Amino acid sequence: MISVDSPLAAYRAAAEAHDVPAMLACMAPEVVLKSPITDRFAFSGHPQMRDLLEDVHAVIDDVRYVADAGDDRTRLLALEGRVGRQRLDEAMLVTLDDDGLITHMQLFIRPLPGLTAMAAALGPRVAGRHSRTRAFAVRAMIAPLAFMTRHGEGVGSRLAAP
Known about the structure:
Helix content is 48%, strand content 31%. It has helices at 7-16, 20-25, 45-59, 112-128, 132-160, and strands at residues 27-34, 42-44, 61-70, 74-83, 86-96, 102-110. Strands 2-1-6-5-4-3 form a six-stranded mixed β-sheet.
């Protein structure tokens, strides 16, 4: 078990260690996570968060928190990570309850190739918890977008650079 001074500090340490049970211990039972990929659904409660966190930690590596700012109720965490060879940055807006447990999480990921790499790696895993057919369909929809953003970023950024 990770021994630190606050549930949010414990969460950061657990996330860097890929320790899903310790991450869940830092969350209120009714926790809600808004996806950075879609507004169509959110993940809520420990069972859904456990599944999601297991899937996330299966696809993301080198997680390192680089900033934590805010007050006793609202925090903004910044982290760096990698999906395959694609680097990504994430900002997470976190709401805490009176005990310092996480009640709400909203994620923002950049750059676009990082977001689409995460979606391409994570989407089929999440959908695959329902069926292989859903996993295949999600992979078929997201993979071309991830390919285009990964390979188009170099040309597009050179064309648009100031």
